[in-house]
Amino acid sequence: MSEVLNPFGSEIFGIWNWLDAIIRVVIMVTVMTVVVMYLIYGERKIVARFQQRLGPTRTGPAGLLQSFADALKLVGKEDLRPKRADRWVFEFAPFATFVPVFITLSILPFAQDWGVRNLPLGLFFMISALGLEIVGVMMAGLGSGNKFALLGAVRAAAQMISYEIPLVLSLLAVVMIAGTLDLNQMALQQDRYPYVILQPLAFLIFFTAMLSELHRAPFDIPVAESEIVGGYFVEYSGIRWSMFMLSEYAAMWGFSIFGAVVFLGGWQFPMGEDWGWGWQLALTMGKSLAFIFVMLWVRATVPRLRIDQLMSFCWKVLLPMSLVQILANGFILVYGGPYWLLTLTSSLGAAVLVAIIMRQAFRRSSTKTLVGAYRTQLQVPAP
């Protein structure tokens, strides 16, 4: 009977395993779409509160149906293609941007045994798949036949490649302690304390690089309206434009769950294995929403960096700090140092990183104040 139900004779390619995978993918796509819609709504409401506004209020109770109305509007809009655009490159770019984000969501553990598939090399797969998003970005910029789209794509590619290096190094620092690339195993090892306690510097580097990879403020140079009109997807409209937005917010959600699993204990800490799958889902979603809230907080309060400041911060600050973290971990682990020494060295590095950021921010604000006072004395209008 088992041979009839499973004619392939393999656990991986069996009929029921494929059916199980398809059901899980359908559930994940449904949840992802709803989550993205309400992430957009949540961002509009939260940023509005920071700016003393109300945000969406009219479409549905408290504006809860605004994202659904926007989705219907985008589906009904005309799909335009510039005359000078490369047809196939232009039309396939949104898919090349969305597919890497989609496949990364399929290996994330939302709870114990709750995910599409668990991979022994899940962390490695996650990083590799997210790196493919650059292909879709460059396709959108090159295929649009627009110099502003091309400039946005080049900026985005340079930024993503640069910040991916400290991102990977910060994760490598955690892997050195965990001894595994399996995301479920990493979550299980954080039953007593999360890895953010052992590696606060790696966590700060990861979060900063994550903002850059997602093109979130203050690293939103690739889509800066004031400089390059709208970025690499400026020529897109309707459903294709909405796919870029879907990719951006789905990646934000996926990165948040990924960061929660690697640094905050995921579904395991605290008491995840003891209190069941409901508590595990609540832990994962709560931690990911905390990540997203901090992203929105940063967007509402931190001004955009210039392209030279953005690249200098990566190569001159984050990259050396991540290398120092790895060297410190290697020295402590090889010579059998206690774990509290990992926390101490990483905390000192995190304090140094915060001091560098505060020093640069204070220097910028002081310079603007002096320039403003000088213009006032000379009665020179501001540009």
Q: How many domain regions? A: 1
Give the H and E element order.
HHHHHHHHHHHHHHHH
Sheet of most strands: none
* pLDDT averaged residue by residue: 86
- Beta strand count: 0
Shape: globular
Uncertain runs: 1-14, 369-378
| Gyration radius, rounded | 23 Å
Task: Explain what the structure shows.
It is a single chain. The protein has 383 residues and is mostly helical. Helix 2 crosses helix 12, helix 2 packs parallel to helix 14 and helix 6 packs antiparallel against helix 7. The longest helix is centred in the C-terminal third of the chain and has 40 residues. It is globular. The N terminus is likely disordered.
SSE topology sketch:
Layout: H1 2-5, H2 15-50, H3 66-76, H4 87-105, H5 122-131, H6 133-143, H7 147-178, H8 183-188, H9 195-198, H10 200-213, H11 225-228, H12 238-263, H13 272-275, H14 277-301, H15 307-334, H16 339-378
Helix pairs in contact: 2-3, 2-12, 2-14, 3-12, 4-5, 4-6, 4-12, 6-7, 7-10, 7-15, 10-15, 10-16, 12-14, 15-16
Provide the descriptors you would attach to this structure in a database record.
383 residues, mainly alpha, 72% helix, disordered N terminus
What's the short version?
By secondary structure, the chain is mostly helical. It is 72% helix and 0% strand. The chain has one domain (77-378).
